[in-house]
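Researcher: Before we compare anything, I want clean individual predictions. No alignment, no superposition, just each chain on its own. First chain goes here; please echo the sequence and then give the C-alpha cells.
Model: Echoing the first chain and its structure:
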Amino acid sequence: MRPSVYCSRRVPVPVRVELERLFELELHDSERPPPREELLAAAAGRDGLLTMLTDRVDGELLDAAGPQLRVVANFAVGYDNVDVPAATARGVLVSNTPDVLTRATAELAIALLLSLRRRVTEGDRLIRRREPWLMAPTFMLGHGLEGATLGVVGKGRIGAETARLAGCLGMEVVFTGRSGGLPLDELLARADAVSLHCPLTPETRHLIDAAALRAMRPTAVLVNTSRGPVVDEAALAAALREGVIAGAALDVYEAEPEVREELLSLENVVLAPHLGSATHEARAGMGMLCVAGLRAVLLEGRAPANALNPEALR
C-alpha cells in the first residue's frame, strides 16, 4: 500500500502527476479552500497532508487526521497558519517551501513599488473610466526610483533579493530586522519607500500602526508583500486618506481575501490579490518542494532539508 496523502487545493499539473505517482492521493480539485468540516473529514486516516497558507493546521486538524499522520507539507514559505509545536508534540514533521519563491516575490514587490511611484495602476483606472486625457508636461507626474531610499523591513531571503533588485534600479537600501540594521523608527523616518518582508509573529502583528505611519515621510510609500496583519489596515486607510503618507501597495490583507472597504476608493493605493509567488515557475517549484518533503518522510524515512521541526521525525 502506498502512503495516503490529502492535498487541500488544486496544484500545477506536474506536481499533481508526481503526487499521483508516489502516493494514494485525494485532491480537493478547486482553487477555493475546502470548508473546515470537509478538511477535517478528508484528513482522517492520512499519512501526509499538503496544506495551503489559508488552511489552519492546529491540534484539531492533526487529531482529526489520526496518530498515523507523519508529515504536513505546507505550500508556502511562511507557516503562521501551522501550529508547529502542536505538530512536534504529535510526532508530525512540518515542511515549507523556501527559496523557490524568493525571486518571484521580490519581483512583485518592485513591480508594486514602480506601479505606485509611476502611477501606472492609477493611469490604467483613468483610461478604463474613459476620462479625457492628453499627454502634457505636467500630466500625472510620478517619481522614479533612482536615488530614492528603500527601507527593507526583514533581512531574510526575499528582503535581501528585493534590496538587490532595488539596487540595480539605482536605489539606496537600508534594512531593519532581527539580524540588525537600523532601528525601525529611524528607517521609517529616512526611507522614501518602505517594503515589508518580515514573518507574521506576535511581535510583528500591527508592526506598522498609526504611530509607525506617522514616523514615515509624507512623501513616502509603503509596500506589503509579507503578511496582511503586519499592517494595521484601519490606521493605513486613515493615513492614506489624510495624507500622512503618499501611497501604499498591498499584496496581502488583514482579513484576506476580504479587503478593507476604505482602501478600494483611494487613488493612491495599488491592490493585488496575493500574487507574490504567482509565477508558473515559482508555484511549480513550491509544489515540488512539498512533494520532496512528503517523499522524504513517507518513503525514505528521513527529514527533508526544508523541515521546520526535524526533531519530530519518528
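Researcher: Okay. Second chain, same rules.
Model: Second chain and its structure:
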Amino acid sequence: MPGPHDQFQRPLRDLRISVTDRCNFRCPYCMPKEVFGPGHAFLRDPQLMTLDELVRIARAFTTLGVEKIRLTGGEPLLRPDVPDLVRALKHDLALRDVALTPTAGSRKTRTGTPRGGPRSHQRLRGFARRHHRGKMNGLGFSVARVLRGIDAAAALGLPVKINCVIHAA
C-alpha cells in the first residue's frame, strides 16, 4: 500500500513529534516570559502522551511509510523518558533515522545522550554578542551552557546543525 502524499504528490516520509510543551528558556520569539511565566499552566502528566502511546503512534506512521522521526518540544530533554523513547524508536521499530531537536542544548551535559543515540542533534541558538546573551533566552542563562551541550554532541560524533535567530539591536 503506497503511503500518504502531500498536495504535490510527494511521499510523506518525515514525522515530527513534540514530546513536551515545557522549556527551560523563555526566548521572546517562542515562549516569552510575559506569557509563560511562573503561573503558566503547562500540561500535566495525564494530558501528555505516555511512552507507550508515543511508540504506538510512531509505529502507525511507520506502517504508512514514515522513515524519519524528529523529537521536539518545548525542550524534549526535559522529559525524563526521552532516552527510552529513542531506544524504542531505533530498536523496537527499527527506525534508522531518529533525530532530536533540543531547544538550546543547556540540558545536554546533565541528561546525556539517549542510549542508542539519535542520528543528530539540532540546536536552536539565539546567542551571538556578549550583551545579547541571556536576553535572547529570557532568563539570563549563559551561552557557555549551550556551547558545552554542542561540544558534547559533537564529541559523540553526532552531526550537529545549528539554527540561529538574527537579532537586530
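Researcher: What stands out in the second chain?
Model: The longest strand covers residues 120-125. Additionally, The beta strands are 14-18, 68-72, 97-100, 120-125, 160-164.
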